Amino acid sequence: MSDLVMDWARQARTGVPEAVLCASKSAAQIEAALAAAEEAGHSLLLTRLAEPLFASLSPATRQRLDYDSLSATAFYGEVPNPAAAIAGVGIVAAGTSDLPVAREAARTLAFCGYASPVIADVGVAGLWRLLDRMSDIAAFRVIIAVAGMEGALFSVLGGLVAAPVIAVPTSVGYGVGAGGTLALHSALGSCAPGVVAVNIDNGFGAAAAAIKLLRAGARS
Amino acid sequence: MSDLVMDWARQARTGVPEAVLCASKSAAQIEAALAAAEEAGHSLLLTRLAEPLFASLSPATRQRLDYDSLSATAFYGEVPNPAAAIAGVGIVAAGTSDLPVAREAARTLAFCGYASPVIADVGVAGLWRLLDRMSDIAAFRVIIAVAGMEGALFSVLGGLVAAPVIAVPTSVGYGVGAGGTLALHSALGSCAPGVVAVNIDNGFGAAAAAIKLLRAGARS
Amino acid sequence: MSDLVMDWARQARTGVPEAVLCASKSAAQIEAALAAAEEAGHSLLLTRLAEPLFASLSPATRQRLDYDSLSATAFYGEVPNPAAAIAGVGIVAAGTSDLPVAREAARTLAFCGYASPVIADVGVAGLWRLLDRMSDIAAFRVIIAVAGMEGALFSVLGGLVAAPVIAVPTSVGYGVGAGGTLALHSALGSCAPGVVAVNIDNGFGAAAAAIKLLRAGARS
Amino acid sequence: MSDLVMDWARQARTGVPEAVLCASKSAAQIEAALAAAEEAGHSLLLTRLAEPLFASLSPATRQRLDYDSLSATAFYGEVPNPAAAIAGVGIVAAGTSDLPVAREAARTLAFCGYASPVIADVGVAGLWRLLDRMSDIAAFRVIIAVAGMEGALFSVLGGLVAAPVIAVPTSVGYGVGAGGTLALHSALGSCAPGVVAVNIDNGFGAAAAAIKLLRAGARS
Amino acid sequence: MSDLVMDWARQARTGVPEAVLCASKSAAQIEAALAAAEEAGHSLLLTRLAEPLFASLSPATRQRLDYDSLSATAFYGEVPNPAAAIAGVGIVAAGTSDLPVAREAARTLAFCGYASPVIADVGVAGLWRLLDRMSDIAAFRVIIAVAGMEGALFSVLGGLVAAPVIAVPTSVGYGVGAGGTLALHSALGSCAPGVVAVNIDNGFGAAAAAIKLLRAGARS
Amino acid sequence: MSDLVMDWARQARTGVPEAVLCASKSAAQIEAALAAAEEAGHSLLLTRLAEPLFASLSPATRQRLDYDSLSATAFYGEVPNPAAAIAGVGIVAAGTSDLPVAREAARTLAFCGYASPVIADVGVAGLWRLLDRMSDIAAFRVIIAVAGMEGALFSVLGGLVAAPVIAVPTSVGYGVGAGGTLALHSALGSCAPGVVAVNIDNGFGAAAAAIKLLRAGARS
Amino acid sequence: MSDLVMDWARQARTGVPEAVLCASKSAAQIEAALAAAEEAGHSLLLTRLAEPLFASLSPATRQRLDYDSLSATAFYGEVPNPAAAIAGVGIVAAGTSDLPVAREAARTLAFCGYASPVIADVGVAGLWRLLDRMSDIAAFRVIIAVAGMEGALFSVLGGLVAAPVIAVPTSVGYGVGAGGTLALHSALGSCAPGVVAVNIDNGFGAAAAAIKLLRAGARS
Amino acid sequence: MSDLVMDWARQARTGVPEAVLCASKSAAQIEAALAAAEEAGHSLLLTRLAEPLFASLSPATRQRLDYDSLSATAFYGEVPNPAAAIAGVGIVAAGTSDLPVAREAARTLAFCGYASPVIADVGVAGLWRLLDRMSDIAAFRVIIAVAGMEGALFSVLGGLVAAPVIAVPTSVGYGVGAGGTLALHSALGSCAPGVVAVNIDNGFGAAAAAIKLLRAGARS
Hints:
Chain A has 10 helices and 9 strands. Chain A has helices at residues 10-14, 27-40, 51-55, 59-64, 99-111, 127-132, 134-138, 152-160, 181-188, 203-219, and strands spanning 19-21, 44-47, 65-68, 73-76, 89-93, 118-119, 142-147, 165-169, 195-197. In chain A, β5 (89-93), α5 (99-111) and β6 (118-119) form a beta-alpha-beta unit.
């Protein structure tokens, strides 16, 4: 535990809370982070906590976590009341395979007190599915767009809306689309100005950016 | 010239005529190919004949060529009468920067006796531009789609039309889009089934495929 | 299930039916898609349904599917009578390791009412194997060629036949050939005009393109 | 000119005006776009108009453009009064070699009526240079960070400020840093949440995102 | 065993002892190396000896090894007394996920008689964590810096200290940061002069370089 | 000149003479190598001596060189009498654009006293061109095959002949074939056993390997 | 079995026998190949037959195979008497981790009647190990060199011997050396002329090339 | 000039002086840096100042610089007396094409008061050239090794000497060796422990590391 230096002041400093990316950590390291949170009296968000890793935590720990297996996220401690969540962010996902990443963004936003409705299965292969939902989508102040494969959704959406679009490429795909690089490059190389990107599968980062962005608006 | 083995029977065998890709050839090698065509009494299509290379040919040769600088193509010999051109192929180009490649396809088709109207500047950043032209586009039996950058046009088009879409990625773009790999991968990784791809900037190949395809239809 | 938006009109609009790529979906998501198909009274094609995933479906579901393990595809609902299948497409596979992908194409074609004889094990390392079968191959109106490793089959075939060749590179290979990129690039960089490519291992996409192509011929 | 379809409604629809990326266009195509702007009574922003291309425009055209060679941008027509520019965006550049890209962002913002002070030469190899300027930087509502080479600036800045950071990787660098991919990946792979990225050298895109973002704040 | 040629003279010749990289070896090959060490009366360092491979060794062998599972290293035979370890090297690790690699370096140094305190969890996303420890870090004569993801630590550290910085990129990360190439390139492309790099996850190599370097100082 | 250490004994030691790769050398460095050859009384082969670099040499030097511009090679000093050249090697080139590399191999062989007839323009897009020449090709003891683009020639040839095939991929091609990596990988990933490869455009290396190989045969 | 077309004439035509690469084949496909061999009265070489796949064959089949687990190869049918093996080929392996690939080459040679002593653990990190064995190595007419990681062995060996060197890069390594591309490129980019390469881990191909090469010598 | 923030304290802080990498700067920016140096009374090292850029500086500026065209470096102001240079560093270069980079390192060392003899043309294709010089090389306390192509020199040297080896890969090479990535990876993936690497062509960085390293020794 002596190796662990939690950055509890991050939320005050940058607007985004400390979180623990569990993917390359041991159960012991995760338990240590939770103990530190308990000692400091802080809530803590855990991401990339895959089911086998979650199952390897102690029963006592598991019981104290609000775990969501689709997004592989967990909440420790007090979390803002959803009824009082701040509106403004919307999440648009191309396919059902992109939902784990979309949910990671939504859970991160919820942990910070923001609501984020998810509009799913609106990939551009059936353009009408997206066009049918445009009036809902146009109402968001910030849009998180989640897509894998060739990521054409990012450009189409970026050309249709006034809101900034935060693109989250996903690793859903095969062949030239495997691993998410194609979707990422489609977001970055988009012919529609105003699209920005985060790392592949980084729903957490997209949520963090959306929060900073809404707060920037509120600071004026 | 002894190194040169022209494949004059190719058109009979495969439906696509012999053509000379001039990019990595010397002026002498191109003159030799034209001499062989003259001797055999064949027409000949020259592609990737950039202006400096064209200018390095003998004046006599230049005069006998029907040269188009935008597409860097030239016709030698008799070419089918445009008034009698076979309809069915349409070319859709995302931006004005994609026109050289679109024109290479159109010129190849013209050399073989096919008409191919070009619908340009319908990139998806302004989706209405494409939707406005859909009734024209839907009338084509085969569509050649030409786009660079993130190539989102391929997926959007593929999801809207019944005709097969032959995607020609172009090397137009910068950063992650430089060189055309992104547009190529977008075509291949498209979520819209029925999109096929040729090599980057390969307008000639797309035309060849379109011709084979129309002939396949005619063989039934 | 509310996240699922099936595109039942796709077949009417584009000639290719809605299908479910199962690879990155959960058993629950697949069951939901089948329930939607049942409710809508539609047949449904499932692809990339690997055996472990198939085994994780409910026994009732499994019984209602016509499952083929080699191609990892399943049919739900009514499928056209093979006896009345439309001819014209032929599938040529380089090696026995390429058969799963060749079969995915054949099964997709069968689901849509098209016959597609498979000619296998005709890789160019033993050129006579291919030349022996050329009279059969030359009779097809559209050819789907399936090959991994260095994909030399695409160029050899493209130079011999009048029919359009839809190349499906496979991920069969090792070292520089691993993952299918080499075979894909061989198809795209082919010196034989008229070869078009789909994504690596994308037998479904090749079948979709072949169908669009035959229908284009029929529209004249 | 018939190939040109200007998207004059883009500004109303998305908050970002139509602009012409000149890099892969001919002088004739650029003159045509300017003629269209004149006819429509619109201003027009030209980007990636390198000096040789600018010099190839007609003298009359050149005289009507407000050209800036460092950023390779030009303004045509009426531009907002700088004295009335909207504040909120700040640009932070790692080195003097990054200034062309930083200036492209600043010029785009100026064309749209936004002020954007540039703080330059604050790369992290001399961390004190950045720390000395932090009080100025912390006052911005949105930060555009511009850096090439290893792009460590993005992570350091992202960890220090509450404002969203739009990272613009530049192609400044050599060896493993050549072309800007390293700086791009450093932005995307940053351990500091809330950093978003645009394409390499895309100062225009960063400005467009910053504008959308400030407008999102104003819509609340 | 006849295939095995141990280089026992390496330590005398180059200052770094023979070691066995176990990752791609069989249990039998490892036992043979240990038998050779026993016969020659040498100690032996084993690296990349993952737990399953360690478990596959004979009980007798396992008992004779000083095994550390976090770093996957083992010592065979006599090892220098830690109480007499030579000071001068310090190890700085960005995150807790980088500790296995940091520990491989520390264990290699200990095997050779050098002390190497580890300062962990000082990634630049919370810059104050690093700045708080700078007085300790500045006292080291040689610094081994261990970081994954975007590796911004290397540049920040390189700009702050007089000691040479040996960067060990780790394979910790995802998306563009997966596999460690991004962190490696950040070290190599660093704007801070005096940073040198070893291969990804190569804690052993960094320790070997640090030893050679301290010995170079001692030779003057 | 003191920096230059010519390896005159290489021919005796390895069968292949010292040669100077001129591409990244200055005119002064090349003149120094020739002076060293003169002093030592040796002949010298110069490769990659492009015309502008050749033109920058002193007139006296140019006069003493037997220069061939197509292959960018030059001979200095005595060269074996072509009339007495040793037979056994044949060179097969796919297209006329591959001739510079084929000629580099032929010139290197001539410099060492070997004859090497070139059979050109037998790419597999017109398979009959290759099959027509097979009786000539089958007579060679060693075959150097030269091809760019997708390099299908290597596999077709490798499957037809008993002789070893040394593949020389060329950088002729565009899009996915640009730079020669595709042709190189096609040679390495070939399904025809017995094909070996040298570096892209390395006609010299192929000739060196062919010489070693013929000498190996002669040593029995 | 109808999909299987064995090329029994390959040995007569090219000097290298038909072999079955088992890696991507099913147990049923392998059994079918063996049945075809039995029916034709031919021996058969199986490569890349990993232990789990071997174990999945029927007991009767397993009993009829001469299986070697280190190289994952199996012989079916009559094999030449080792006592009468033809000499001339030597195999040099850099490390013990490269032995599986070295053994694949040796087993292929044995199947065809050639002897091939293996000299192992002579990597260049301890150059004396290689120099100590040079008199043995210099006696071979053809050398197969097997190395992973940075593959420096290929260049050192190529500069020392008169025999042609067939380089087999192996996938042994990590970080930048993972997968074998680095070792492959070191062989191809070698500064020592006369080194040729086969695909990564392709011991079979190296043996096939060595056989063709020795036969070429014997044809003079 | 207001954009320029020189880090004059760097030498005191890190042991390596401020230097200006000129490659992507304008003549005006370079003149501004020199003016700042003059004002501050500091010497200044300019690197990557190619001849055309040097020629574009004002005559007065050119006269005040000690310019070396081979290394493209220039000294401004007082430089340590070579007669009093500190010994300990040696530079070993594989070929004459690597001399510009070797010289950049030597010039940087000279600017800082260190001597660095260069031993050139000792590539491993003629191993005796290197072995002949080993007694000189073994006397250095720190070795900077400079090599392009396959960079085998790094491993051979690393296995022979006790001194730390700082590898500088160069961009000398073609095909798979083009750009220097192969040489870089050979250094990083070396089987000889104690080799560290800097960026491609980064002679300045190697010199900076060597200085830090010698100073580390002196601090004991």
